[in-house]
TrEMBL record:
Residues 32-86 form the Cupin type-2 domain. Residues 1-12 have a biased composition (Low complexity). This is Cupin domain-containing protein. Residues 1-20 are annotated as: Disordered.
Length: 107
C-alpha cells in the first residue's frame, strides 16, 4: 500500500514545475498538480483518460473552446485526445490527476 497527504505532496511541487508524480504502475499514474495566480497552462491533450479531482482553489477549464468554472470538490473526466487548459487561477489550485493507462504510455 502507498499513502500520502495531498497537501504534503502539493507543498513538494516546486515553483518551476506544475506537478509531481506520486504513483506509477503500467495501468495508472497519479499526479498532484498545483497552479497559482498568474501561472499558465497551455492548451494540450494527452493520449490517456484523465480524471481530475479539484482538491482546493478555483479556476476555469477550457475544453475544446467551451469554458467551465471548476472549484474544490469537482471531478472532471477527459477522454484521450481532448484539448484542454486550465486558466484564470483565482487562488492556488490543487488537483489530484489520475491517468489511465499511465501518463505517456498511450502516446
Amino acid at each position: 500500500m502507498e499513502s500520502f497527504a495531498v497537501s504534503d505532496a502539493a507543498a513538494d511541487v516546486s515553483d518551476d514545475e506544475e506537478s509531481i508524480e506520486k504513483l506509477r504502475t503500467d495501468a495508472v499514474s497519479l499526479e498532484i498538480m498545483s497552479f497559482k495566480e498568474g501561472d499558465e497552462d497551455p492548451m494540450h491533450a494527452h493520449g490517456e483518460d484523465e480524471i481530475y479531482h479539484v482538491d482546493s482553489g478555483n479556476a476555469k477549464l477550457n475544453i475544446e473552446g467551451d469554458t467551465y468554472d471548476v472549484s474544490a470538490g469537482d471531478v472532471i473526466h477527459l477522454e484521450p485526445g481532448t484539448d484542454h487548459q486550465f486558466l484564470d487561477f483565482e487562488d492556488k489550485l490543487v488537483m489530484t490527476v489520475l491517468y489511465a493507462p499511465a501518463k505517456g504510455s498511450a502516446e
